[in-house]
């Protein structure tokens, strides 16, 4: 067996990084590189041992050594260069670098997804699955309920795609900025300001989403703007959720086909120039004052996940889970 070293924590700047080492040379290399504050490391590794000391050679870092039953863990400062230094020192002495998944007792798709969960809420759902929620429920699973949760399971790591569309100058970019909480899209009174897709990743109620602002859809006079409109149509076609924005202070412009669109009436802080009651299903918002934005967020959450899973509930999230549901549909 090779002597292996892996960084178990995410790459980047952090307070603490954890590295794991195992294999025939793990303890001898560690004895050479790790100097306890008091005494010296024994000739043999004893599981349960924990020591504070210095890790390295000429530029040693403060570190904690923990001996596990199956590996040695090193807890050092989390800077990128510190982690690189430790790995290079071990590699120079015969170890090889491996990905963190190699240290899992039984690598699974769920654990790999858990490492990439973008929100606390989706991480909690994936942690339930990693801790056996799916296996515990396999005999009593309701295939109908599980089928309802498939869209959620497909978006525990990858965000839902939401598109904001409408005619020029109805406030699409301002609405996206209101959701994001900062200026992500440039806004101007000139029609055609947004000519390409502008996206931002957010979390609403713990669900990861990617919101895309699109070019105003109209019979555009210029070829460049036409290209932006074509991209807007393509983004809307591929989206998980589509919102069409109506200007509450100007004559409304509706999509050619209203099916599949959720309606927003923006600029409700201005005097109405048409009967808003004629579109009873529309949510009323103001990007400028943020009135209705919280209700919009709650609506998005309900549309994406109408019945969120309870704590510990089985949620399909891997190809094997999806295949099981397909095979057991009533």
Q: What does this protein structure show overall?
A:
The model is unreliable at 190-194 (pLDDT under 50). The strands form two sheets. Strands 3-4-5-6-2-1-7 form a seven-stranded mixed β-sheet. The chain has a six-stranded mixed β-sheet with strand order 9-10-8-11-12-13, with helices on both faces. It has 330 residues and is α/β, with parallel strands linked by helices. It is built from ten helices and 13 strands. The chain is elongated, with a radius of gyration of 27 Å. It starts with a strand and ends with a helix. The protein has helices at residues 26-33, 80-91, 109-114, 120-130, 133-137, 143-153, 172-180, 223-238, 293-304, 319-327, and strands spanning 4-7, 16-22, 34-36, 50-55, 61-67, 72-77, 96-97, 160-166, 198-204, 207-213, 241-247, 262-266, 283-284.
What gap, in angstroms, lies between the N and C termini? 48 Å
- In terms of DSSP E residues, the strand content is 15-25%
Classification by helices and strands: alpha/beta
Average pLDDT number? 88
Strands, total number: 13
How are the strands of the biggest sheet laid out side by side?
A: 3-4-5-6-2-1-7
How many strands, what sense, and barrel or not for the largest sheet? 7 strands, mixed
Write down the oligomeric state: single chain
Radius of gyration: 27 Å
- Unreliable spans: 190-194
| Shape estimate | elongated
| Helix content range | 25-40%
Number of helices: 10
Q: What order do the SSEs take from the amino end to the carboxyl end, as H and E?
A: EEHEEEEHEHHHHEHEEHEEEHH
């Amino acid at each position: 067996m090779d002597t292996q070293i892996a960084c178990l924590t995410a790459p980047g700047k952090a307070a603490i990084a954890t590295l794991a080492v195992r294999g025939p040379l793990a303890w001898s290399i560690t004895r050479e590189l790790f100097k306890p504050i008091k005494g010296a490391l024994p000739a043999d590794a004893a599981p349960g041992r924990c020591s504070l000391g210095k890790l390295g050679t000429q530029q040693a870092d403060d570190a904690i050594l923990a001996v596990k039953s199956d590996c040695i863990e090193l807890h050092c400062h989390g800077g990128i260069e510190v982690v690189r230094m430790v790995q290079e020192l071990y590699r120079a002495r015969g170890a090889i670098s491996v990905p963190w998944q190699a240290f899992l007792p039984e690598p699974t798709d769920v654990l790999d997804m858990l490492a990439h969960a973008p929100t606390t809420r989706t991480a909690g759902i994936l942690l339930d699955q990693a801790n056996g929620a799916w296996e515990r429920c396999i005999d009593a699973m309701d295939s109908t309920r599980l089928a309802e949760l498939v869209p959620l399971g497909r978006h525990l790591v990858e965000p839902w795609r939401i598109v904001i569309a409408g005619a020029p100058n109805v406030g699409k970019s301002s609405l996206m900025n209101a959701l994001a909480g900062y200026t992500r899209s440039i806004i101007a009174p000139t029609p055609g300001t947004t000519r390409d897709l502008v996206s931002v990743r957010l979390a609403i109620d713990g669900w990861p989403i990617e919101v895309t602002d699109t070019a105003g859809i109209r019979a555009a006079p210029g070829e460049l703007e036409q290209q932006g409109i074509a991209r807007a149509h393509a983004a809307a076609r591929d989206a998980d959720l589509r919102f069409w924005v109506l200007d509450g202070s100007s004559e409304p412009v509706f999509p050619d086909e209203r099916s599949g669109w959720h309606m927003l009436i923006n600029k409700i802080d201005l005097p109405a120039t048409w009967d808003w009651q004629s579109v009873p299903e529309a949510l009323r918002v103001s990007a400028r004052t943020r009135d209705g934005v919280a209700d919009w967020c709650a609506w998005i959450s309900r549309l994406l996940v109408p019945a969120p899973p309870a704590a510990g509930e089985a949620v399909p999230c891997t190809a094997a889970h999806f295949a099981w549901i397909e095979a057991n549909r009533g």
